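Thread: "does anyone have the structure for this chain?"

Original post by V.I.:
We have the sequence but no experimental structure in hand. Need at least a predicted one for the grant figures.
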Amino acid sequence: MSGIRLETNHSEISELSNRNQAVLSDDPLVPSRSIGAFEEAPDESESGEEAYVYFHIDPKYTNFVNRIIEGYEYVGVMTSVDNEGLCMVRCTPSTRSLAIDILQSLPEYVTIEG
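Reply from O.Q.:
Generated one for you, tokens below.
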């Protein structure tokens, strides 16, 4: 094994430690309001589940329908609920209508609940 000697610059370590202490604060954390897509911070008083879209498909088409949903970025996430073909798209209130439109465009594969 070769003899490698590590040198430690204690003044640099001390300076980094002081810089890290300056960043820490006792201020409480607050939700970010810098999300460019929202004029105001979103209302989080509800769970969000009321925006989910439930539908039935033949399980052999699960991957196909999921790929279509994924192709529309940021619409939602498709999840299989059971082995019988009940699925849902976890979407937001603002993307729910688009998710429904996408699923309705696949009538030979999808039957929307409700």
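V.I.: this helps a lot. The first strand starts at residue 53 and ends at 57.
O.Q.: and The beta strands are 53-57, 76-80, 86-91, 110-112.
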